[in-house]
Amino acid sequence: MQRSSKGFLVGIVCLLLVLGAGLIQAQDESPSVSAARARALEIVGGQPIGGTVSMLGVLGGAELESFLSIIRPFEEATGITVEYESTRDIAAVLQTRVEGGNPPDIVSNPGVGQMMSLAEAGEMIPLSQVMDIEDLQSNYDAVLLDSISVNGELYTIFTAVNLGGLVWYNPNQYDGPNPPASWDELADWATETAANGTAPWCIGMESGAASGWPGGYWITEFFMRENDADTYNAWWQGELPWTSPEVRRAFEQFGEIATDPALVMGGSTAALATSFVNGGDGVFTDPPTCYLHQQASFYGGIANGNFPDLTPIEDINFFLFPDLSADYPNVAEVSGEVMGMFNDTPQARAFIEYFASTEAQTLLVETGSYLSPNRNIALDAYPSPFTQRAAEVLSSADTVYYTGFGLMPQAIVDAFLGGILRYVQDPSQLDTILSDIEAVRQQTYAS
Questions:
Q1: E strand segments, 300-439
Q2: Which residues of 38-65 are buried (b: 16+ CB within 10 A; e: fewer)?
Q3: How do 153-154 and 106-109 pair as beta strands?
Q4: Are 116 and 194 in the same domain?
Q5: Cα–Cα distance between 114 and 124 in angstroms, integer?
Q6: What is the pLDDT of residue 18?
């Protein structure tokens, strides 16, 4: 603290004012907000620098307000104003802005594949020029960072993530293995349950133009639990044919459930027609019409919204998708948005370093809206029982992958999701479906 040079009395008055302000601050803001403000000021060298950061993203409404609450301590400490522009058509807007030579300073984008393509084209700033990469690596899983790197260079950080591959259940009605030691153990229980007259699984894949994506998560779970990191990376990087035995097996494992009316409630017809928002409702009805539903960490809020009388954890809970191979244990899958820098300014540098910090990521999880892949976030920072448990699972995973189809070019994603819908409708067409997706892969990477 700087002391006044105008005499003892002025010094005392200033001290009392500072102490008073400190008492007000202590009452009005949390320690994590204070820590975030201090970290932001440290990043800019201890003195506000002012200026602006232009930012493009997809958030709106309550989600955007939660996000802006993470940014406010940065703005207050640094004097930098963050100008957030929201659009639901971020792929087109970003591409147009880049091609026009006026990209925003910072972009937070769920289209990870687009960001990686722009990085490869030289449109983005390598983060090694902006922040301490070793410090970043100490906070995040190495395999996860590798999955969003381009030619060994990191261009983006994670804005926020969802943890995929969670199997949701009602503890008052599910009596199976918990958690199952392996997929085989869970599959044996499911077969026995089906024989007793109740389908063990519920699936809902309808999601408008994006229908099929829940099936994409199923297939990814099977694929990454039976293959090594090189094979997984080759798949999403377009180096592994879709007609390969590895991809075929993951499709078939999913199909064994999704196309069997004994194993999934309502059979393939219900799986295709049911919205993902209601995909697990049968787990929580009384009596249940199924016992298990595979979905990401955000599903806890959906389930509780559909059944507000149920209590989190007591009535709505989950375990991680079980291991398929002893060679690849305790694997986790995340999806979400990434943030990258397009204009190299002091303000943009400060902002992205701030957002990657443990202090800012703590504020992010305290909103209750987000999950952070930062391994050093205290679990008690999560206000929701669902996100707290998901963070615990994520932080204890041996290997963390980003969802493969979230990293693929859009043409392949479209072919993949469309192929899933065709396969569930008619599994006998699998050879044709995989050949069709393979043709799109070859065309995409030939151009």
A1: 317-320, 331-341, 399-402
A2: ebbbebbeeeeeeeebbbbbbbeeebee
A3: unpaired
A4: no
A5: 12
A6: 32
pLDDT of residue 364: 94
Q: Quick one: 387 and 434 in the same domain? A: no
Q: Are residues 379 and 365 in the same domain?
A: yes
**pLDDT number for residue 50:** 98
Is 408 found in the same domain as 261?
yes
pLDDT at 5: 32
Long-range contacts from 45-49, C-beta under 8 angstroms, 24+ separation: 48/77, 48/78, 48/79, 48/80, 49/78, 49/79, 49/80, 49/346, 49/347, 49/350
| The residue to which tokens 């209750």 are assigned | 368
Residue 86 pLDDT: 94
Residue 128, domain extent: 31-39+47-162+335-392
Residue 262 lies in a domain: yes
pLDDT at residue number 417: 95
- pLDDT for position 35: 97
Q: Does residue 300 form part of some domain?
A: yes
- Residue 81: inside a domain, yes or no? yes
Question: Cβ neighbours of residue 202 under 8 Å, at least 6 residues apart?
Answer: 264, 265, 274, 279, 280, 281, 282, 283, 289, 290, 292, 293
User: In total, how many domains does the chain have?
Assistant: 2
- Which residues are CB-contacts of 80 (< 8 A; sequence separation ≥ 6)? 44, 48, 49, 50, 51, 52, 53, 74, 347, 350, 351
Backbone angles phi, psi at 175, to 5 degrees: -120, 20
d(CA 41, CA 77) in angstroms, rounded, equals 5
pLDDT, averaged per 10 consecutive residues of the chain (447 residues), comes to 30 30 47 96 97 95 90 98 93 94 96 90 95 88 84 91 95 96 97 96 93 96 96 94 98 97 96 96 97 95 94 96 96 92 98 96 90 88 91 89 88 94 98 98 89
